[in-house]
Amino acid sequence: MSYDNLDAQIPIIGESHNDNVYLSKTHIHTDPTSITLFSHHYYQIVNRSTVPIEFSWRALCTATEEREKKMRLNMQLTQEEADERSIIESQPNEDSAEESLDSDDSYDEDELHQKRERQQKKAIATLTRKYASIRKAVDEDLMLFQDEIFSIEPLQGKIWPNTDMTCCVTFKPQGPYHYSCTAFCNVTCSEERLALNLTGQGKGPQAQLSITEMDIGDIFVTN
CATH number of 16-59+144-203: 1.25.40.10, 3.30.70.260, 2.60.40.10, 3.40.50.720? Predict the structure, then answer.
């Protein structure tokens, strides 16, 4: 800092640390569950710190991975927008322009060309707004955990100091297979996200015939 042409230097030192927040379980293996049914399993997010914390369950392990994924999505959107724009610019809707003209009036080629240009500009402006809205949604997306087989409730919340919150994992298999995935809990007071491994086994129909062969005896053939 400077004062009356004098410079003063003040050393500033800070230290950061992860607060004592953890999961009661790091791996949940749900009970074998029949197809079309579901099972629940419960666990706790424990806050043993002196400050309230906010949490959210994410699909990716780090914020860096989230930024990279959003960057790839935005690059894809840019390419898609460019492709649609080139189609609009190279193929103006001439039929629409001609149909919109009053059949009782006469227009020269310049007026018709101006009409087509206005329609083209309107289509490009609509396209620009559409992709701007999509990009905004991508940038604001928290990328919360989503899975067709496993679901976590609640996905977001706040936990007060020295308390815990009970959460629920729901397992709903779609086939007689072994399922596995990992969810990551982003906590405001922790640099690293807390990983929760989820596994489960789907069961197929548990039905069988009481016998595999039946002898009905001799039958007389009658008219």
Answer: 2.60.40.10
What are residue 44's DSSP bridge partners?
Answer: 166
Is the CB of residue 164 less than 8 Å from the CB of residue 24?
Answer: yes
Give the tens place of pLDDT for each residue, 184-222: 999 988 888 999 999 999 988 777 777 778 777 777 776
Domain ranges in the chain are 16-59+144-203, 64-99+108-140
- The whole-model pTM stands at 0.70
Q: How far apart are CA 73 and CA 77, in angstroms?
A: 6
| Closest among 197, 202, 166, 177 to 28, alpha carbons compared | 197
How many residues are there in the chain?
Answer: 223
Sequence-ordered strand ranges (E) for the chain: 2-3, 6-7, 21-23, 27-29, 33-34, 39-47, 53-58, 150-153, 156-159, 163-171, 178-187, 194-203
Cα–Cα distance between 179 and 200 in angstroms, integer? 5
Q: Give the C-alpha separation, 11 to 154, whole Å.
A: 44
